Amino acid sequence: xxxxxxxxxxxxxxxxxxxxxxxxxxxxxxxxxxxxxxxxxxxxxxxxxxxxxxxxxxxxxxxxxxxxxxxxxxxxxxxxxxxxxxxxxxxxxxxxxxxxxxxxxxxxxxxxxxxxxxxxxxxxxxxxxxxxxxxxxxxxxxxxxxxxxxxxxxxxxxxxxxxxxxxxxxxxxxxxxxxxxxxxxxxxxxxxxxxxxxxxxxxxxxxxxxxxxxxxxxxxxxxxxxxxxxxx
Length: 232
Prior knowledge:
Elements: H1 2-11, H2 19-28, E1 36-39, H3 42-52, E2 56-61, E3 74-78, H4 81-98, E4 106-111, E5 117-126, E6 130-137, H5 141-144, E7 148-152, H6 157-166, H7 170-174, H8 184-200, E8 204-215, E9 218-221, E10 224-228
Antiparallel strand pairs: 1-4, 2-3, 2-4, 5-6, 5-8, 6-7, 8-9, 8-10
Helix pairs in contact: 3-4, 6-8
């Protein structure tokens, strides 16, 4: 399936996979993601939401819209079929208003996952060293604090353990001031899974799982972004 998704994107002249495509590719690699399903109509969105279970999140799906929230393309915490239908219509209308030339493929429907400690796992390609993996505090914190650790792919288990432990925000993962600790072993496993995925798919130029919600009993990637290398 992964190869088919990549070939389909290339055939359409795209290097950026949709979030739905990115999650399908990662799921196939054994990486735990919050599943997202494409709805082309409001009724279809409500049906998918019923299957996933409420509450849900809706996000616009468009090759030309990268920052979905900036164009009103995200609606959170929707708790009924009526909420989902209304949100679908609002998202499509807002996207068309803000990006009139964009192709709107539909709307992604996914579960509203319980909040956890937000971390990021990412990969970029360095001209000299090749794929470089990143781990750190996620969400907006990654932009504000830049509290991240880097290692060159492929990683050893020791590398993954060091990456998770060396960020300044590590005390948050241990359960700072009475908060629930995160499952650090699962985060280390996730880092190793992403390293293996990157090794197996040299056609991937960039990857971001942000945020990943870290819980006391696991972790799940809520958002996923994959960029393909040009012509690879």
